[in-house]
Amino acid sequence: MLQVSFIRENKALVIERLEKRNIDATQMINNVIDFDEDRKRIQTELDNTLAESNSLSKEIGDLYKSGQAQKANLLKEKTSQLKDLSKELTETLGNKVSALNELLYKIPNVPHESVPRGNSELDNKEIFKAGDIPVLYDGAQPHWELAKKYDIIDFELGNKITGAGFPVYKGKGARLQRALIAYFLDKNTAAGYTEYQLPLMVNEASGYGTGQLPDKEGQMYHVTEDNLYLIPTAEVPGTNVFRDVIVNENELPIGITGYTPCFRREAGSYGAHVRGLNRLHQFDKVEIIRVEHPSKSYDALNGMVDHIKNILKELKLPYRILRLCGGDTSFASALTFDFEVFSTAQDRWLEISSVSNFETFQANRLKLRFKNSEGKNELAHTLNGSALALPRVLAGILENYQTKDGIVIPDVLQPYTGFKIID
After folding, report:
1. Which residues fall within 8 angstroms of residue 3, CB to CB, at 6 or more apart?
2. Which of 120, 11, 109, 124 lies closest to 334, judged by CA?
3. Please, what is the average pLDDT of the chain?
């Protein structure tokens, strides 16, 4: 959530930057400023009313002490009126603050200056590419056919048990999945991230804290009786670890990692581009999350990008990095880099990670602050990234490592799987 002070001091910049998201925010920003003016006016009136009431109460006490009960009783009527007025003003102020927050909740984060303008993923900018695209044998197959051939993932069984988008991993497929999770976690903890095991459901406050609510309410599974949400990513419970927390400046940076299943109702359209593991309702992901000093968060973002590059280098998968345009950047992010692995069998790029800096947007919602060197509370910056999302990494391995004799396991994963080939 943007800070009102930031909006007031940078009105033109906020409107200009939000145009990168193809949003004309002029009216919204003007409404925020008008509501804040009303809030300040009501707050001033309430403060003056309370001050007058306190002054009269002191005067009444002095009058009683001096034996002037009649004058004191007359003033008591006035204090009664002031108490009624202060109660009314408090209620009005609360309603105004709630209305202001509702406005702020609808305004997305201001894109970083480096975010390109654009409407969709077609306008994202490729900034890096690495790895050799393998030349496959004649008759190479996409991963959903390989899964059936080697009996390692059963999409039809998942459909029977639950529905489309809930695959069942079997045998060496399940072990490869477990190996990837362990490998990612080991890489992340070796890089200084503390491992957490996080809840798979969150309350409404957590959803608002990271920006999933109200923006993505329709994309999350909602347990209505308890008003809980199945997590769309470990970002939500992981970042909410720090909700309503004040840390000392010398505690920064803070980095955590965690593996969770993730659940998303909105799984996209039909067709070959979403077949198999390409888009699921339930999938596994390992997340990295950082809490940073504002002056160091973009260096931290670059460090996260380098960390994921190193993982993909070890997996020997061809990949590229995109800087997302304004129209494709998530609601809460200021700057996002997407990693995509090339699927040779499908002849297309598959997104496997998003790495984002949210600056103070989430921290303002979370009330996540640090005590700076002057002893004042200041909003921290939050960042997160997938390190990594498993389905498309697994699809990339199955497709790019396939041979006529079977699917070779990347060298770095063999100590985790205990086998070298799926045949």
Report:
1. 360, 364, 379
2. 109
3. 95
Q: What is the C-alpha to C-alpha distance for residues 276 and 247, in angstroms, rounded to an integer? A: 44
Using one digit for the tens of pLDDT, what is the confidence trace for 370-423?
A: 999 899 999 999 999 999 999 999 999 999 999 999 999 999 999 999 999 999
Which 3 state secondary structure label does DSSP give 237? Answer: helix
Measured between its terminal Cα atoms, the distance across the chain in Å is 51
| CA–CA dist 193, 255 (Å, integer) | 5
The candidate with the shortest Cα–Cα distance to 383, out of 337, 350, 339, 352, is 337
Q: Which residue has the tokens 């459901």?
A: 201
- The answer to whether residues 285 and 390 touch, using CB atoms and an 8 Å cutoff, is yes
**Residue 51 buriedness (CB in 10 A; 0-12 / 13-18 / 19+):** exposed
DSSP type of residue 379? E
3-state secondary structure of 84: helix
> Strand 406-408 and strand 402-403: pairing?
antiparallel
Residue appearing with tokens 């980095």: 255
Distance CA 265, CA 7 (A): 34
pLDDT in tens, 92-141: 999 999 999 999 999 999 999 999 999 999 999 999 999 999 999 999 99
